[in-house]
# Entry
Amino acid sequence: MSAATSHQQTIIADSLARWVADPKEEAYLVRIGRRSMACQFQVFLNAGQHPNDTEVAIEALDVVDAIEEMLTIFSDESEVSNVNRMAATEAVPLSCELFELLEMSLRLHKETAGAFDVTAGPLSEAWGFARRSGSIPASETLKVALSNVGSEYLHLDREQQQIRFVQPGPMINFGGIGKGYALDCASERLLTAGIGDFLFHGGRSSVLARGRRASAEGDAHWSVGLIDPLRPERRLAEIFLKDRALSTSGSLTQSFHFQGRRYGHILDPRSGQPAESDLLSVTVLDSSAARADALSTGLFVLGPEQARNYCERHRETAVILVLPGSGVGNMVIETFNLEDTDWKIAEDQKSL
# Structure
């Protein structure tokens, strides 16, 4: 299959907790982890490859903590909280890291026709998903929240490296890109220390791999399992990563039902409503973990047809769409810009 073509395969399936399973653990892998950004970050290293690998991995996790301190909206002392507090009344100077992340976020907002938006936090608050207790918001509450959502309300001054909100009300929240950005930054600490073979993940939904892993059969690509979106105890596919990041999004992990209808936690920042996508999950592979993180959400919001169109325009980004198939428990997998050597259907799925 060429990188420019799509691949479709129908399999039977029948639910979901984690999106990505860890690589199979064996004696020649070392794992170092820490809780940050409300999830578990873990680094996998080839055992015995570098004498200082554990020390450097801990330093990389320190980088994750520093990114969280910069981005968190749950501390009044964070740089993002300061921006949200001051930018409607004055231009706020930004650190190089936050300015870089904001520039990337605005580019991705444009790329996805507004489906990814770092100002969408008020919508998550209105729907209760920020508190993990979803409920239908009052129409006025939703109207007020939506009036403050829009990346067009953010004005970046590159020369002065400052931000200002063009109206009162917007709030920036990097929940849709922060984990990926933290992986990108933390991985640089490993690379600069000469450690070029590792797998780094944040909460299993965002993964970044560099180099190769050691195995009994010799060096190989890092392999992670994509979890079946309808049956969380099973792997849907194996994905092979080398110098690439992966992120998966889907709404089944957090949702609520009201009057017979399910409302998922992935919200469309353009309408203020939960994304009405036919997709079960979207997996994006990209050189940047931050881009993969944001695009998996953005493409889920866009839905299958616009996601396919995006893949046609961006051949450097590989995408796996999982959609409902015909009949109960069936699924359809579509891949774009992904070589056959980059993935395979899991063995237990082949027999169905």
User: Anything to note?
Assistant: The first strand starts at residue 6 and ends at 12.
